[in-house]
Design a protein that fits this description.
With about 140 residues, the chain is mainly α. About 70% of the residues lie in helices and about 0% in strands.
Length: about 140
């Protein structure tokens, strides 16, 4: 310790004091990814525009056109870098869902009844407040 300052280890790297959210290196999308994003949006918009453009077609067929545009747009998006991140997120979410201990039917029914009773009680309390406030306003206004 020299001059009241602790000595730094010569081999230890300097500590990064920036906030955590500022330490992440900004990633810019590649030109190919930007083109894929534009294509994905164009496919979805094309499906919606086709729905209105082909008004003489049967509604079910036009709905399939919108669905096809949406599926094609999602398929193109999934081959981008953000699409890969989305696939990874969904995969990890599915893995975490397998760890969840789901309630039994009996537990779910009990919880549902508790919630329904609580809703009725709160509704009655609010109705009582409404009656009291209405009576107070009428008394103040002299009606």
């Amino acid at each position: 310790m020299l001059d009241g300052k602790p000595a730094q280890d010569a081999q230890a790297p300097a500590r990064d004091t920036r906030p955590v959210n500022m330490r992440v290196e900004p990633r810019t999308a590649s030109a190919a990814d930007i083109a894929k994003y534009a294509l994905a949006i164009a496919l979805v918009v094309g499906g919606v525009v086709g729905f209105y453009y082909f008004a003489q077609w049967a509604t079910g067929l036009r709905a399939l056109l919108v669905l096809a545009g949406l599926v094609a747009g999602v398929a193109v998006f999934m081959v981008t870098a953000k699409g890969a991140q989305t696939r990874e997120f969904l995969s990890e979410s599915m893995f975490e869902l397998r760890k969840v201990v789901w309630p039994t039917r009996q537990e779910a029914m009990r919880t549902t009844w508790v919630v329904m009773i609580a809703v009725v009680i709160v509704a009655l309390i609010l109705a009582a407040f409404d009656v009291v406030i209405r009576a107070a306003v009428r008394a103040l206004l002299g009606s």
